[in-house]
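Q: Please design a sequence for this.
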């Protein structure tokens, strides 16, 4: 009897092929968690739309090897407790093949270990913690620059611009703490110290006490890791207190038209890091055209992030071949060597997206080059983001020195 059952099982495998979770002859089921409601929804909604737009575009071309991508969007409201519940549901009940483009460092940290232990690929992490990359984890594939990279690049940029009295302002959470550690460590390596290193409660809405501290230290530049709406309110209040001559350089999480809309005139002169290049003023740009096939709007930076997440996943699935498995997807991702995308340029020409076998220290570092954008007041368009620097790259070999 056992021999008969075994023979039947072999016949089933030969006829139907190996069934991988979330993969059928016609479909690849993937999940994402986004803040579709709550205070972070202005980031989560466009990111989800960017992913959906790109997957729709691929599906209209016939999918990948005849399979169309079906995206489940879970609303975790940027609450890590909800993230855990939603991700477990998508993996254990919905049976997704992979998680793609989850948003938010707290939620990502809450589920990355679970996903890695379950052997579920997590492609594109919408956050910047160094813990996503170190130690490298087999099924976890960060794309965005981490906060260690960003803190280093911002400080080096400010020093190169001649600033000598640099203050650091950061969210008192995992993301901001890593940014602060990097910024302070980089200054130390340059023989300098911050004139102030100020932690901000992530729930705070008034920054009078923090700005009073800054006024007392007389900085000429401020390296910031705050997210909207805090980043908007902080700069507006600082300028109201007379801090108008200082240079403000902030995390790439603020590189959106939404920042300018919320900050108004206070946005002028504010700078942010950026790690992808899209010509938002060019209606013929490929990324903009793809997005506008499905949404009647210009994509913002968060929508572009969602499109990148989808594009990385699509490239990996294509490389994995028609017999798609989770192990095959990991192997395909590890063939990325300075990959810079098809429709959206990732990093500079020498620092695209590279993954390696996890035995190597830098196997999951993501993008390590960035440039600076600045809000300028133009005659034709009013306040807009403009390119303010060439690409800058971080030497991964120096990472431990900063940490």
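A: Design:
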């Amino acid at each position: 009897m056992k021999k008969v059952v075994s023979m039947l099982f072999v016949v089933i495998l030969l006829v139907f092929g190996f069934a991988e979770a979330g993969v059928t002859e016609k479909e690849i089921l993937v999940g994402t968690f986004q803040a579709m409601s709550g205070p972070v929804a202005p980031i989560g909604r466009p990111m989800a739309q960017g992913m959906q737009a790109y997957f729709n575009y691929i599906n209209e071309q016939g999918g990948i090897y005849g399979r169309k991508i079906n995206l489940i969007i879970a609303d975790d409201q940027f609450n890590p407790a909800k993230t855990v519940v939603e991700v477990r549901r998508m993996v254990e009940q919905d049976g997704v093949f992979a998680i793609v483009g989850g948003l938010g460092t707290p939620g990502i940290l809450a589920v990355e270990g679970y996903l890695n232990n379950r052997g579920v690929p997590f492609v594109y992490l919408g956050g910047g913690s160094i813990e996503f990359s170190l130690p490298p984890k087999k099924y976890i594939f960060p794309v965005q620059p981490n906060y260690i990279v960003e803190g280093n690049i911002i400080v080096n940029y400010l020093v190169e611009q001649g600033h000598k009295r640099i203050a650091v302002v950061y969210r008192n959470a995992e993301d901001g703490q890593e940014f602060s550690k990097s910024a302070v460590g980089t200054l130390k390596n340059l023989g300098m110290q911050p004139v102030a290193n100020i932690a901000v409660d992530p729930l705070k809405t008034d920054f009078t006490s923090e700005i009073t501290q800054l006024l007392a230290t007389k900085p000429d530049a401020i390296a910031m890791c705050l997210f909207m709406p805090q980043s908007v309110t902080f700069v507006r209040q600082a300028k109201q207190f007379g801090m108008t001559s200082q240079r403000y350089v902030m995390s790439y999480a603020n590189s959106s038209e939404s920042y300018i809309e919320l900050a108004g005139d206070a946005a002028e002169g504010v700078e942010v890091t950026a790690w992808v290049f899209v010509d938002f003023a060019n209606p013929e740009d490929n990324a903009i055209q793809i997005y506008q096939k499905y949404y009647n709007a210009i994509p913002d930076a968060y929508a572009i992030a969602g499109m990148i997440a989808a594009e990385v996943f699509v490239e990996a699935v294509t490389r994995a071949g028609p017999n798609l498995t989770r192990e095959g997807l990991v192997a395909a991702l590890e063939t990325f060597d300075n990959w810079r995308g098809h429709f959206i340029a990732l990093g500079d020409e020498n620092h695209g997206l590279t993954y390696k076998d996890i035995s190597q220290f830098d196997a999951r570092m993501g993008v390590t080059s960035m440039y600076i954008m600045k809000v300028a007041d133009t005659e034709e368009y009013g306040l807009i983001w403009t390119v303010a620097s060439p690409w800058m790259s971080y030497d991964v070999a120096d990472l431990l020195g900063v940490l």
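Q: Thanks. Anything notable?
A: Residues 277 and 345 are 5 Å apart (CA to CA). The mean pLDDT is 90.
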